[in-house]
Amino acid sequence: MTGFFGCQSYYSQVFLVCFIAYIVLAYGKKYDIIRVGNKPILKTILIFIMSTRSVIGILQDDKSVNSVYCHFDGYPEHTGYFLKKFFNTTEKVNNLISNGDISSLVSSQNWQREKHPMINNKQVLKTLYYVDRPEAWEHIKPQKHKGVLEFFQRDCCDEFKYLFLPSGNWNYNDKGVWKCYETSDPTKPAPTISIPDTSKFFDSENQMFVYGFSKVSRIKELSKETKSLDTVESLGNKIMQMGL
Questions:
Q1: Which one, of 55, 120, 50, 58, lies nearest residue 87 by Cα?
Q2: Residues of the chain with pLDDT under 50
Q3: Which of 11, 88, 149, 192 is in the most buried spot, having the most CB atoms within 10 Å?
Q4: CA dist 121 → 5, 218, 219 (Å)
Q5: What is the pTM for the complete model shown?
Q6: Residue 167 backbone zone (phi > 0: left; psi -120 to 50: alpha; other: beta)
Q7: Is the bond leading into 186 cis (omega within 30 degrees of zero)?
Q8: What angle do CA 187, 190, 194 make, to 5 degrees?
Q9: What sign for the dihedral angle of Cα 201, 205, 206, 210?
Q10: What gap in Å lies between CA 189 and CA 206, rounded to an integer?
């Protein structure tokens, strides 16, 4: 016998009732909701489907911001910690952002799920870029924002935004600093979140982080031969042949 909403299975009906009730509670309490476009969606489901998204940016001298999207592990204990520990200079941050959107800021595997080689009995960790998959550069290239407000308006369903302030005009410290902002609730101002100095996700005795080189300049150089920047896939073989 067909139940309500066309559900035939008892368990399907129970699941549907719980799902609807959860949405109603979330609307009423204004918690556990994240936005896709203008539609609210349950954050708990997104944790399994889309992980913890973040946006990483750097403030320029002209007040503009360059940013990239990072898909996995965007919380301060992971992405925040690794940004603070390994990307603490303007040069390092610019190099990170120049390679476009990121799958995982720190990964022990490549896109083929092969472990990176060990060095001195330590597991190598690297940044996993979408350009290495590869994907169309037009879809993953860094975004240029006219100012900080426009940077915060970039909507990637992100829960955290990270902004690097280089030393100089906008930062009077001797070194650049990272600021973390919680952006999970678009209806509220983004509060600053402290970034920890230690993390359970990094074991210095058994792991080491290895920086990647800037791929984009070489990709653009090679693209002059192909007359196209639509995809980096056509350039992959040439890059491998050059030993990059």
A1: 58
A2: 1-2, 4-7, 26-49, 218, 221-244
A3: 88
A4: 58, 32, 33
A5: 0.70
A6: beta
A7: no
A8: 150
A9: positive
A10: 40
